[in-house]
Fold these 2 entries.
Entry 1:
Amino acid sequence: MDWLRFFKREQKRSASIAKERLMIAVAHQRSGDANGLRYLPQMREELLAVVRRYVQVPDDAVQFNVARDEGIEVLELNITLPEKQRN
Amino acid sequence: MAKIIVVTSGKGGVGKTTTSASFATGLAARGHKTAVIDFDVGLRNLDLIMGVERRVVFDFVNVINGEATLKQALIKDKQLDTLYILAASQTRDKDALTQEGVERVLNELAQSFEYIICDSPAGIEKGAFMAMYFADEALVVTNPEVSSVRDSDRVLGILSSKSRKSEGGDGKVREHLVLTRYNPARVAKGEMLSVDDVKEILAIPLLGVIPESQSVLTSSNAGVPVIREENSDAGLAYQDLVARFVGEERTHRFLAAPRKGLLGKLFGSQ
C-alpha cells in the first residue's frame, strides 16, 4: 500500500468513469448504425413531397426531433403550414 | 483455401502495424506460408517495422496498375522463407487502390499463400475500407482507453455491414479482440479500463492482451518484429496470440502487475 495515498481523499476511480461513459457512447453509436436513423433524410424528402401535393411549403417546413428517454425512442414530427393557407 | 485477415482499429497509433508484423511473423515461423500487405497508401510503414525498407523496389499500387508482377513486388523475409511482405505505395493518389485491383492481387496471393494479412490504415476511409472488405477474419486492435474503444466499436459496425462476407450473405467476418498497451499496474489502481471492461463493451472474443512494453519501441528501432524478442513479455504475448489463433489453448499471461517488494510498496511512486 502506498501510504501517502492514505492521506489523499478517496476519489472515484477514473477507469469506472471511463467505462460508464463508453457504455453510453457505444450504445448511442450502435443505435445509429442498426435501427437506421439514416432513413430520416429520405423520409423527410418523401413527407415534403406528400405535403406539397396539397400545400406549398418551404424546404424547412418539416422538422424532426428524435428523443431517447429510458429506452423509449420518440420521433417528433412538426409540419409548419404557411400562414395564409391556414384558413 | 487462403485465409484473409485484416488488422484494423479505426484509431491510429494503437499498434496495428506492430500487430500485423508480429502476427504475420508468428504464423510464418510456424511454417504457414504468409503474406502481409501494407494498405496505408501514402504512409508506408510496415516495411520499416519488418526491417525490409531498403529492399522495396515495387509496391502494392505498382502491382494493381500492372507496372510490376506480384512476384517482383513481394519481398521475401531474410530469416523466414515462408514470409513475404508487400509494401504500400508512397503515392499521394487516394484512388490508387481500386476494389477490382485489390481483389485481383488478393486472388493471386490466395493461390500460393495460406494466410494473407492486411495491415489497415487508421480511419474509415478508402484504404481502411479496402483492407476490410475482403477479410474472412479481423483482428481489432484496441487500447484500454476511451477513444480507441469507441473507434473499435465503430469499425466492428462497418465490418458487420460493409464487407464482402456480409454483402454476399456469406456469413460474417470472424472478429478477434487484441488489447494492446495494457498496463496491469494502472488497471489494479483503477486508472485504466480492464480486459473485462473492454470485453464487456465490445462483446467480441479476446485473442490476446499485449502488455505495454519498452521492447515494442526498441524492436521497431531495429526493424525486428517484437514477437522475435524471446525475453520480452510483449513478444511472448504475441507468441501466445498466434498459438491461440491456430487453435492451441494458452492461458492469458501478463494480466497482473509484477509484485513489488517491501520497499517498492512503501515508496511506490506511481
Note: Residues 14-34 of chain A form the longest helix (21 residues).
Entry 2:
Amino acid sequence: MTRAAEHSHALAPAPRRKQRRPLTPKLKAGLCILGIYVLMGVFGPMLLPFDPDKSDILSRLQAPSAQHWLGTDQLGRDFLIRLLFAIRIDLPVAFAASFVPMIIGTALGAIAGYYGRLTDTIVSRAADLVQAFPVYVFLLVLVFAMGSGATSFIIAASAIAWVGYARLTRGEVLRLREMEFVAAARVTGLPESRILLTHVLPNALPQTVIYFMSDVVMMVLVLSSLSFLGVGIQPPTAEWGRMIAEGQPFLRSHWWLAAAPGLMVMVFGIGLSMIGDGLDEWYQK
Amino acid sequence: MSRAGYIAKRLLQTVPLMAGILLMVLLLLHAIPGDPARAIGGINASEETVQKIREDLGLNKSLPVQYITYIGNALQGDLGQSTRSGRSVTSIIADRLAPTIWLLLTGMVLSIIVSSVVSAISARNKDTWLDYSFVALTIGGISIPTFWAGLMLILLIALPTGLFPISGFGQGFSGHVNSIVLPATTFAIAISPVMIRALRTKFIALYRQDFVMMSRAAGLGEGAILFRHLTRHAALILITMISVQVGPMIFVSVVIEKTFALPGLGQALVNAVSQRDFPVIQGITLVTALFVTFVHLTGDILTSFLNPKMSLK
C-alpha cells in the first residue's frame, strides 16, 4: 500500500488528467479471460440446441459424443450447456455480491475516515463485531435464514463484505485528508462534502478497485461452496458448485462431471486475480 | 502502557464483543422472514406445534428478556435443545468436536510448514523460474474451490492408490490419522496460498536488511541466517496471518467436512441447516465465534510478547 501512496500523491491534485498508459501484459491476459467468459456466457448457450434444466433420464450419464460434446449429467442434461449456462449465474451474482458491499463499505469508510469522532466509532465497532464472526460461516447461516437463492446471497454478502471496503477506504481517507491538496481545496472555500467526494475519494479508489477484484474471486468461491453445501443456488439451475456436488457420486466413472466445473471456477479466478495484480502494476506506473 | 495493562485491556474489550456476538446469534432467529416459529415447524405444522416451538424458544417474550435469558443460559453451558432430536445442543457440540479439532490442527500445522518452506525458497530465489512457478501456483491456488481440491485429491490419490479412505473419520488413533491426511492436505491447499503471498513479501523484505548482509560478511551460512534470524521475524507475520485467516479456516473446514463426510461440527452445522434446527445452528455459530475471538486475542497477546516494538495501545 505504500507504493500506492506515492502514486496517489503524484496525481493528487488532478486525478482526472491521467495520461493514457499502455496496459500491462497481466492486465491484458486477465481481461482476455474475463472477455472470453462473458462471450461464452452470452452466446455459448444460444449455439447449442439443448435445454439446460430439462432432464432426460433415458440418456443419463452419457460419455462425450458428437451430439453431446461433454456428455450428459446424471439427469441426462447436456453437460456443456450447463457449464456455459452457469456463467450467467455465477458471474453476475459474484459481481453483485461484491459491488453492493463495495458501495456501502466505501461510503461508510469514507464518512468514518473523513468526519471521524462518533461516525468513526460506530462504523469501526460495527466492523469489529462482524469480523469477530467466522464471517463465511455467518454468511452460510444468514443465507439459510433468509432462504436460499441469489438475492439472499447478495444481501448476506453485503451484510458482511462491506467491512473490508470500509476498513480500506477509512485508512486511505485518513491518510489523504492530511495532505496538502486537501488543505488547498479547503482554502478555496469548497464545502467539506465536495472535498471528500471530488478530491479525497477519487484518490482512494484505485486500492478499492484492486480489492474488488480479489473479492469477486472470493465471492465465486463462497457462492459455489454454499451451493455445494446445498444452501446457495437451488437445483435445477446450473451453478458450478452445485454441479461439482452432483458429480461427486460419479467420481469413479464420470470424473469430468466434477472436474470441469471446478476448472471453470479456477480459470475465472486466475483471470480476475491477473486483472487485480495488473491494475496494481498499472496504477503504480 | 505496560504489557499487563495491555493484556487486561484486551481481555476487557472482549466482554462487549461477546455481548454483541450473543445478540447477533439471537437475532439470527429473527432474520427469518415472517414468523420464525412457523418457519421452523414447516408448512404442515399444526397451530399447537407452532405455539409450542414459540414457547420452547422463548419467542413469545420480549426481545430484551430473550436476550438476557439466552446469555444467562449460555453462561451456564445451556444452549438449548435441538428441535429435531431433543438432545442438548452442548452435548451435540461436544460429540462433534474431535474431528473438527483434528482437522483444524493438522491442517493449520501443514499450512504453516508448506507456506513457510515455499515462501522462504521463493524469496531466496527471487525472480528465478522457481519463484515464478511458485507465484503462479499461488495465484491458481487462491482460485480453487476447496471442495473441488478435495474431490481431485480423492480422484487422483485416494481412488488409484486405495491408501486413504474417501469418507468418514476412521477408528482409533491410526484410523483418525489415516482419514485426516487428505482433508488436512485439502485444508493446506485452501489456506497456504494466501499465507505464502504475505510471507514471501516479508521474506523478500527481510533478505534486503542490513543484518543479513552483515551476517553473510561475517561468514554465517545461509541456513544459519534463515533459521537463526529470519524465522523469528517471519513467526510474527505468521501469527498475524493465522489470526486474520481463522474465519476463512473455519469455513474451509466446514466445506471439507462435508466433502469427506467427517462427522465434525461443520457437518453438524450443515445438517442442522438442512433440518432447520435453529438452536443447533445458533449454538455452533456461537462456539465458532467464541473460537475466533479467542484466536484473535491469543494472537494479539503473543505478538505483544514477540514484538517489543509494538505500541501497546
Note: The domain at 96-275+290-306 of chain B is CATH 1.10.3720.10 (MetI-like fold).
